[in-house]
Amino acid sequence: MKRNVGKVVEYLPFLGIVAVICTASWLAGRSSLVSRPSLVRSPVRR
Amino acid sequence: MAFDLDEQLNGSRVGFFTDTSICIGCKACEVACKEWNQVPEDGLDFTGMSYDNTVGLSADTWRHVAFVEQRTPMGRQEPGVGDMDFRWLMSSDVCKHCTQAACLDVCPTGSLFRTEYGTVVVQEDICNGCGYCVPACPFGVIGKRETTGVAAKCTMCYDRLPAGEEPACAKTCPTDSIQFGDLDELRERADRRLRQVQEAGMTSARLYGRDPDDGVGGMGAFFLLLDEPEVYGLPPDPVVTTRDLPSMWRHVGVAAAGLLAGIAATAWRRR
Amino acid sequence: MSQTDVRMDGSAETRADREATPGSAGRRRERLVTQRAQTDSYYGRPVLNEPTWKDHDIAAYLFLGGLAGASSTLAAAAELTGRPNLARASKVGALGALGGSLYCLIHDLGRPERFLNMLRVFKVTSPMSVGTWILTAYGPQAGAAAATDVSGLFPGLGRAATVGAGLAGTALATYTAALITDTAVPVWHEAYREMPFLFAGSAAASAGGLGMLAAPLAEAAPARRAALLGTAVECVAATRMERRLGPVGEPLRRSRLLRLGEALSLAGALAGVTIGRRSRVAAMAAGAALLAGSACTRFGIFHAGMESADDPKYTVQPQRRRLAKARAERELA
Ligand code: SF4
Ligand code: SF4
After folding, report:
1. Between A and C, how many CB-CB pairs are < 8 A?
2. Residue ranges of chain C whose pLDDT lies below 70
3. Which residues are recorded as binding [4Fe-4S] cluster 4 (chain B) (predicted)?
4. pLDDT tens digit sequence for B140-155
5. Fold of C55-309
6. Over the range B109-126, which residues count as b (16 or more CB within 10 Å of their CB) and which as e?
7. What ipTM is given for this predicted complex?
8. DSSP-derived 3-state class of residue C13
9. Distance between CA atoms of residues C101 and C105, nearest Å
10. Residues of B in Cβ contact (< 8 Å) with C126
11. Does pTM surpass 0.95?
12. In chain C, what are the domain boundaries?
């Protein structure tokens, strides 16, 4: 049991990194829609 | 290969010739190596593998004596165990100090280097413990030491050679199964010895690693074996992994160009 | 210095024991020779030493490096075709993945504080050395690309960095194939022809997945197509690899992680180009499936290699076949 917990813990940094990447990227993908207009005008309408 | 190590070193390349036909399995080499090089303890287990409790080469085992028990005659020798045919093969394994050494090729820090004697040595103070050399070695020789975090393997007693001393294992070997010396001379001696052993009825005797045209360009430590290499835990036809590296880089190049073209194509269309 | 000179009698001559031959102590009594079973290993012990790499570091790095590299390429393509949101999301994702890559790489070292020792040398014979320099070239550009985009400062510099990172990214996403195939591990080494394509495909699929997850639907078309194309390339490369490797490919064919990875990637890619075009939620789910699929594929490849290093038959048998073939060819000639 303890060994298994130890094993799962080893993967936590990786899972954390992936979660951070997804969140940051998701926020970045929304930022210009929410607040600041993009520097390059998008020809594609939302 | 354009680069000829033997020529570069101008005949000063040294090596081991391990003649397993006269090994008595005393493990004095294992002990002498540990003592001289201060190699730490590597587990005290009873494996049940004949008299071998050392198991194999690793960061903390630089000489390893293999014990193989077979119900086969040893040439024309009387085994003296009743009606049974029996032979005991013993062989002291060590780093091969390959002419084309994969460990050295892949080391990203330059910690592994080729010495003036033609041997391959790890510099403990440079190695960052990336562990690349471990899966690169086709013989399973080098390892990463848990306690220090850096790679370790046989140095052919790099610190004894300048003093004109032979490596500790060769020095201690009571039967001269481990012979140290000038590699060219050892190769000649091995050829003579092979003929002698074969004439004595051991037709399965062969030299392993003597041939400079093999997959690792010949080994600085080579062997006279009495059976197939794999029986002793040695790869039958080892090839330095970097031999395919030029082709690997070409494939990587094509894949990278493909990735660029593919992603460019996906963005081409507006919708 | 060629022979032992320690003697009980102090003489320095080569002694005769060295010349002893089997049988010199007495001739064998005639008896029937028992047929010997062919052994092809030393007590079943592996020939190779087990790689010290940990999957949660190195397999994770294979995934994160691919994600970072392909995301940068996707970001450059998106920016140049006027899709700023996809570009920004991909740049930020790439920077995050780069940070994760560095963490994993350094964490796996036995002496992390000596990380910089890799900048002492440049060796083409060492993919890890080449990779270090690729990271050194790619990292600052990826960082600058993300920072300028998010802050809105120095747009010109940002554009140059974006393109630079996009180009270097393709190298980062594919060199890792050379990194693992340039070893004696049978499955990895033998697969060196397909591995770069598998990794490129898997990287494109994960970058596409991240783009679908993060970018608005109207801009995510390149991400959807990259995911589909990447998944297709990945699956074809994997199938070819498994077939071509023959007996050595057994650990690959047995790998449940690889099957799971393929299933997730295919499901994500197909969902992405269908319902993922209309529904934001579906696109996010498809993107997450693609990311998970790519990660499973990398872990699967990693473990199949470890398995092949751990069993002597994968090392010994192909080599024996090679020797037999060479012998047959010699005899024919
Ligand atoms: S046997 Fe292995 S560790 Fe020794 S020189 Fe050859 S590749 Fe390096
Ligand atoms: S572990 Fe040390 S010796 Fe081995 S390749 Fe890495 S830096 Fe070189």
Report:
1. 98
2. 1-16, 25, 34-37
3. 107, 127, 130, 133
4. 999 999 999 999 999 9
5. Formate dehydrogenase/DMSO reductase fold (1.20.1630)
6. bbbbebbebbbbbbeeeb
7. 0.94
8. coil
9. 6
10. 105-108, 132
11. no
12. 55-309
